[in-house]
Amino acid sequence: MVEQNMVINVGDVIPELKLPPVTRTTLALFAGASGDHNPIHVDIDFARKAGMPDVFAHGMLSMAWLGRLLTAWVPQSQLRTWSVRFLGITHLGDRVTCGGRVLEIFEENGERRVKLEIQTRNQEGEVKIAGEAVVCLP
């Protein structure tokens, strides 16, 4: 967690969030929690009929993991903006790592803020989601 008067510099990397492999249970629990019961994420027969080898993770699950990355670094109340681009599919068994680095430090509305580059990567280093976030520093 960022502390008051902590020195932050452009290029600094925020602590990564490393997750266990994606499982069918992970997908079922997220479907229940989010209300997103799209069968492409939980029904192997449906996924195969759609041309996929198996079910795969919800994009919003990966975005939720990026939310965890950010709120492990600063309190949720300090998050100002957050946007992502979905670049690839997160498959069963993928071990996702979320990370970010400081792109810019600036002042806005009387607050010291940083713009972060954020992303999820699988165990092969392939970026699945890329985006940016702006957070207010304490």
Q: What does this molecule look like?
A:
The protein is of the alpha+beta class and 138 residues long. It is built from three helices and five strands, in the order βαααββββ. The chain has a five-stranded antiparallel β-sheet with strand order 1-3-4-5-2, with helices on one face. A hairpin with a 5-residue loop joins strand 4 (111-121) and strand 5 (127-136). The model has no long low-confidence stretch (mean pLDDT 97). GO terms for molecular function: fatty acid synthase activity.
Q: Describe the global form.
A: elongated
CATH topology of the domain at 12-22 and 56-136: Thiol Ester Dehydrase, Chain A
Main β sheet profile:
5 strands, antiparallel
Report the strand count: 5
Which class of secondary structure composition applies to the elements? Answer: alpha+beta
CATH architectural group of the domain at 12-22 and 56-136: Roll
